[in-house]
Amino acid sequence: MSFREDVFAKILTYITVAVLLGAMLVEAFVIYMERREQERLEAEAVSAQEAINELSAQAHSLADQVEELQEFQDNWEDFVILTDNELCQKMREDLYQRPEVIPQEAQEASALAQEADLLGETGEDSGQEEASGQEEGSFRRLSLHFGFPSPENKEWLLPLNLGNEPSVEYLFYARAEDAERGRYIDILFEVPVNRPGGDPVLDEDGQIIWECLAYDAGLGWTLYTPPEEEAEE
């Protein structure tokens, strides 16, 4: 074999080896990518299974809650009335025009609660005499303008026992507000009614009787005693 043929044969050998190595590298790369894809799919499958298990647990929890809510609804269906009931809306419209039924003591308690909040924010530590002076002057400094929101807003007046047929009074939860000061008073009202029929009892002026039982002006719930009852005692 001549020198030229020998060189040519070696070149062909090198080319063949290079092609084979390239094919092996391509095959190895394909196998590597397939394994990575398989690992990714397995990880996604595990994650999906965990999500399914979690959703299944949540579904069981929601089913239990729905069952509890249904039981609650069944137990109280005869005692609860929707807030958009015609009578409830009538009471809401009446109370909207009756800010005078908000006890003065509740409004004064709101002023005290605001004073306490301000003292808490500033971190002042006043003595008893100074605190007493602040209480006496707080009502003069604060302009109290409590009233009831618009009747279109149904959330501020909620019936508590309109469905309780034997009862001779209705109970209402109401929230009065002083928009200028951003203060609220939660009030529990009792409205006497005539049975049968359930029409509210009217006073001598032909107005619905709203009797305050308790209020929370920011200092906790307080039982309310009308001034005339205090005078009798």
Question: Which tags fit this structure?
Answer:
coiled coil; 6 strands; membrane; 2 domains; transmembrane; 233 residues; 6-stranded antiparallel sheet; alpha+beta; 53% helix
First-residue to last-residue Cα separation = 137 Å
* Backbone CA Rg: 39 Å
**On the 0-100 scale, what is the average pLDDT?**
81
What is the percentage of strand-forming residues?
15-25%
Query: Which residues sit in consecutive blocks of at least 5 with pLDDT less than 50?
Result: none
SSE succession? HHHHEEEEEEH
Coiled coil: 38-72
Keywords: Coiled coil, Membrane, Transmembrane, Transmembrane helix
Transmembrane segments: 12-32
Characterization of the model:
Residues 38-72 form a coiled coil. Keywords: Coiled coil, Membrane, Transmembrane, Transmembrane helix. The chain crosses the membrane at residues 12-32. With 233 residues, the chain is an alpha+beta fold. The protein has 2 domains: 1-77; 86-232, no CATH class. It has helices at 3-76, 86-96, 104-122, 128-141, 227-232, and strands at residues 157-159, 169-178, 183-194, 199-200, 211-216, 221-223. The longest helix is centred in the first third of the chain and has 74 residues, at 3-76. The mean pLDDT is 81.
List the SSEs and their pairings.
Blueprint: H1 3-76, H2 86-96, H3 104-122, H4 128-141, E1 157-159, E2 169-178, E3 183-194, E4 199-200, E5 211-216, E6 221-223, H5 227-232
Antiparallel strand pairs: 1-2, 2-3, 3-4, 3-5, 5-6
Helix pairs in contact: 3-4
